[in-house]
Amino acid sequence: MENEPVALEETQKTDPAMEPRFKVVDWDKDLVDWRKPLLWQVGHLGEKYDEWVHQPVTRPIRLFHSDLIEGLSKTVWYSVPIIWVPLVLYLSWSYYRTFAQGNVRLFTSFTTEYTVAVPKSMFPGLFMLGTFLWSLIEYLIHRFLFHMKPPSDSYYLIMLHFVMHVQHHKAPFDGSRLVFPPVPASLVIGVFYLCMQLILPEAVGGTVFAGGLLGYVLYDMTHYYLHFGSPHKGSYLYSLKAHHVKHHFAHQKSGFGISTKLWDYCFHTLTPEKPHLKTQ
Fold it and tell me: Where does the Fatty acid hydroxylase domain lie (predicted)?
């Protein structure tokens, strides 16, 4: 196999629970032509798509014919903190100053008689609320959107399913596709920001959004580390990595939390533990 990542070798030096299992592929006889962009091919797989896409390989994926669009669909991991952390800091400082002016009130859209003042002491709590809510959004998107099963007779839904997330399951060690590229991320983040501004007063919604944006950054960085990092055995990150490895290579219908297993506990979607052998 070509381009086998160093991270794979490091992972295989750990215990068997952390060992990825890849399909040995005859590239000339696979269901797709790997010499061509895959996105336009996967829609034709039909009923064979679900089985094919959950047989991981170690080579990188090309999705698009256009070099420009292909470039926009990939990124390096450090683009995420470089681009989004300054925005988190700017929004946090800006909305904290708004809170400090003492004129932020809830329910102004519904009534002018019973509005509630929001003091600046609420800023840290609202920020942390945003980070916490992101962990739930992360879980829900991963479980119900990224892991939906498209109809086998729908060419375009299969393509959408593949490009949104499951190409990552086909090539889990393609480092250029492990974090969300800035251009499509900007569109999604912009929609979330507008929703928060419509639902809540500007400073409240903006603060919750800033906390959620930090949660997203931590999520993407954690996800990258779970694939390429070597956490110390017994640590929290080691537990997360074992959880994520099982999600990729054994239990794709469970283990949807990336930055935390909290929601997998709450919704009973934890990956099964390896049974312990009984001793005589």
Answer: 127-269
